[in-house]
Amino acid sequence: MAKPILSKFELLDLIARNEILWLYMLTEKGYSYWGATSKLRRLHKEGLAIPFIVKDAPRGAWILTEKGYERLWYLHRRGIYGESAYCKAREH
Question: Is the pTM of this model over 0.85?
């Protein structure tokens, strides 16, 4: 089975559309737990996403930072990676 690959643009769009991305959402798309964690950690290192931590809530939720939304808009405007459903909805 081929490994699922989401580009950074697709992952940012997925988080933006859902507002909160739970780790299981990536595992449902075919990523292993560690693969999904690795993808999200890379976004975190770039300052594009942060863990969403609420007292007494389960772990594994991620949200975009302001920089993450700005990067999504930038990539959407360039149009190289396709169109963002989140950005298209916000334009109107």
Answer: no
